[in-house]
Design goal:
alpha+beta
């Protein structure tokens, strides 16, 4: 074993280190202490029942209070991981011991209650461990998805730069060469018409590549910010399609984290692309609202709409663009809500914390 491998902590050490690191945040959570208060209340009820255990009314509830420990222990396991399950289970066990000492010294009934309490602690801890594993796996998947999005954006930027600096510039040189031919007095008159057509075709290709390059990575987003970028999207849609588009900005405009600005821009871009391709709309209205601690963006159209399922979440393969918007929002820490009714248009709403 190398020295580097010796310094690497093993799995139990990593778990203990993670537990100690998360413990302060657990202890600051009000829900954690409410759970412990529930354990204390159950322990108090248990003591009262034991104290009056000879009563005919309470004799049937002898073990109920112990079983009730399941509620706070399982809740702690679900919400605070295996650490919460263990801490809550240990508290329940410690609070049960005085009852066993006071009321079950003469027989072995204490063993049954102690076993019940320990089993509840084990179940809560095991459940919490499983929940923690699921959360860890989910975080890893989210991190991987985030890296994929970053790689995709980096590739978009590279392709956009190559198109602008290489392909578009080459077509510009071709257009200039054709202009020189057309302005040359030696150019045959019979060739002027075909050369004009060729020149227009090359110019159209160059313009198309410019639009494609801008669509891949709009410089306005980096230079002027999110508000200007979204207004440019609306203006570009109106110029290209004739759909009347308006994008208003509310609140005090501010710059956001680069990844969040890009996420909002891509979601709005996909929403407007859907309006153009599928909605048959004549008007679209967008709004970007800056609030304290959060931002929201919405896009409404008066198009044909569609039948959305799952509370507005489209789950069919033909709506992969909508699913992509929701995934981008989730990776940025926000949420996209899609509301659409066939024949009544569509609304795409993004809510994103600015923290």
């Amino acid at each position: 074993m190398t020295a580097a491998e010796t310094l690497q902590p093993n799995a139990p050490q990593r778990e203990l280190t993670g537990f100690l690191r998360r413990l302060p945040s657990r202890l600051r959570d009000r829900r954690f202490w409410m759970t412990q208060a529930m354990v204390l209340a159950i322990a108090t009820a248990h003591g009262l029942i034991e104290a009056h255990g000879r009563s005919a009314l309470l004799v049937g509830f002898h073990h109920v209070s112990v079983v009730l420990y399941t509620i706070p222990v399982v809740y702690a396991g679900l919400n605070f991981g295996w650490e919460g399950g263990i801490l809550t289970g240990v508290l329940a066990t410690l609070l049960t011991v005085p009852n066993l000492v006071l009321w079950h010294r003469a027989d072995f009934a204490w063993a049954g209650e102690l076993v019940e309490t320990v089993m509840i602690m084990v179940v809560g801890s095991a459940l919490g461990l499983r929940v923690e594993q699921e959360r860890t796996l989910r975080r890893r998947v989210q991190d991987y998805a985030g890296r994929l999005v970053q790689a995709q954006e980096a590739e978009r930027t590279r392709i956009a730069r190559d198109l602008h600096d290489d392909s578009v510039q080459s077509l510009v040189l071709v257009c200039r060469g054709l202009d020189r031919l057309l302005n040359n007095s030696a150019c045959p008159a019979a060739a002027e018409g075909p050369l004009h057509d060729l020149r227009h075709q090359v110019q159209d290709v160059a313009d198309g590549l410019r639009r494609f390059s801008t669509d891949l990575r709009p410089a306005i987003l980096d230079d002027l910010g999110l508000a200007a970028g979204l207004q440019w999207l609306a203006s570009d849609l109106e110029q290209r399609t004739g759909i009347r588009a308006l994008f208003e900005v509310r609140g005090r405009v501010r710059r956001l984290d680069r990844d969040k600005e890009l996420a909002v821009f891509r979601i709005a871009q996909e929403a407007l692309r859907n309006v153009e391709k599928h909605s048959h709309a004549t008007r679209v209205r967008g709004c970007l609202s800056f609030r304290r601690g959060s931002i929201s963006a919405s896009i409404d159209d008066d198009g044909a709409g569609f039948a959305a399922s799952g509370g507005g979440v489209a789950e069919h393969s033909e709506h992969l663009g909508l699913i992509g918007m929701q995934e981008r929002a989730r990776l940025a820490g926000g949420r996209v809500t899609i509301r659409s009714v066939a024949g009544s248009g569509t609304r795409v709403q993004l809510d994103l914390p600015n923290s």
